[in-house]
Amino acid sequence: METSFQIPFYAKAALIAIGGLALGLIMYLGQHIIVPILYATMVAILLNPLVNYLIRKKINKIFSISLAVVFSILALLFAIYIVSAQITLFTETYPQLKEKFIVTSTQLLHWVSEKFNIRLSTINTWIKEEQNDAIGNLAIGETLTQVMRMLVIGTLLPVYLFMILYYKPLLLEFFRRLFKNEHHLAVAEVLANSKKIIQSYLVGLFFEMVIIAVMNSVGLLLIGIDYAMILGITGAILNVIPYLGGIAAIALPMLIAFITKDSLVYPLMVFLVYIIIQFIDNHYLIPKIVASRVQLNALISVVAVLIGSAFWGIPGMFLSIPLTAIIKVIFDHIEPLKPWGFLLGNIVPTNSKLVFNMKRKIVIPLA
C-alpha cells in the first residue's frame, strides 16, 4: 500500500528560505557574468523581429544576425557621440564654471561661519581633511580592475548578442524538452508573454526617454540655463532608472543654475519645471507607455528596484522591472503560485473583505 508523504509547512519554509539565500548568493557573486548575459538577452529579444524580417527577405541567417548586431552597436555609438559632443561643450567652459563655483563656495563658507559662529580656518581645515580622506580612499588598482572589467564586458556583449540570436532555436528546444508534454502549452505562453513584455517595455522606455529629454531641454532653454541639452539628455537617461532616477536628475541642473546664475530664483525655477515634468511623466507617460506593459503595482516595483540595486547596483535597478514582470508571468501560469502573481500585479480589488469569526474560528470571504 502506497502512502503519500507531505512535507510540513515549517520544512517547506526552511527549504524556500535556503533556496532563496542560495539563489541570492549566486546572483551577487556571479553578477559580472549574469548581468551582461541578461542585457544581451533583452537586446536580442528586441532585435529578434528585425532578424526574422531579414531572414524572410531571403537573407542569410548569419548575415541577418550580423546586420542586427551592427545596427545595435551603431545606435549605441550614435547615442554616445551625442552625449560626448555635449560633454565636450561642457568641458570647454569648465574654467569659468570652476571660477564661479569657487566664488560661490567662498561666499557660502563665510555665511556659515557668521551664522553658526565657526571660525573660517576650522571649516577650511575640516574640508581639506575630508578631501585628503577621499583621495586616500581611492584604490587605483581596484579602479583599473573595474575599468578593465567594463571593457571586457563591452567586448563580450556583441558576442553574447550574436550567439543568443543564432542559437535561439536551440534554446527554445531546450525549454521544450525540459518540461513534460502536458506543460508545453503553458511554457510556450510564458515564453511568448515574456518576449512581448520585454519588447514592449524597452520600446516604451525608449519613447519615454526621448519625450523626457525633449521636455527637459525645452524647459531649461526657456529658463535660460546653460548646457540645457546635455542636462536634458542626462536627466532623461537617469530617468530610465525607475522611480529613483527622476529624483537624482533634478540635482544636477539645480546645481548648475545655482553656480551659473546670480539669483536663487533660477534653481527654484528649475525645481518647479522638473517637478511639472515628473508629474506628467508619472501620471501620463509611465502609466500609458511603460507601466501598462509590465502590469506591476507601484509597491512591488519600488521594492524590486531596491533589491536590484542591492544585488547589481545601477544595472540591477534597470533590470529589476522586466525581470519581476517575467516572474509574475511565471507565477500566473503555475497554479500554487497564482496568489503570488496576483500580489505582484496592478489589479486592486475594491470590495474584497475578510471577516474573522472568533467563536467559530473561521474566515468568511465577502464579495
Which short descriptors sum up this protein?
367 residues; mainly alpha; 2 domains; two-stranded antiparallel ribbon; 13 helices; 2 strands; 81% helix; globular
Distinct helical segment count: 13
Strand coverage percent: under 5%
The domain count comes to 2
The profile of the biggest β sheet is: 2 strands, antiparallel
Distance between the termini: 44 Å
Rg on CA atoms, Å = 26 Å
The gist of it:
The chain is mainly alpha-helical. It has helices at 9-29, 31-56, 61-92, 94-116, 120-136, 140-166, 168-178, 184-223, 228-239, 245-260, 265-294, 298-332, 338-344; strands spanning 353-357, 362-366.
Q: What's the topology here?
A:
Blueprint: H1 9-29, H2 31-56, H3 61-92, H4 94-116, H5 120-136, H6 140-166, H7 168-178, H8 184-223, H9 228-239, H10 245-260, H11 265-294, H12 298-332, H13 338-344, E1 353-357, E2 362-366
Antiparallel strand pairs: 1-2
Helix pairs in contact: 2-3, 2-6, 2-12, 3-6, 3-9, 8-9, 8-11, 8-12, 9-10, 10-11, 12-13
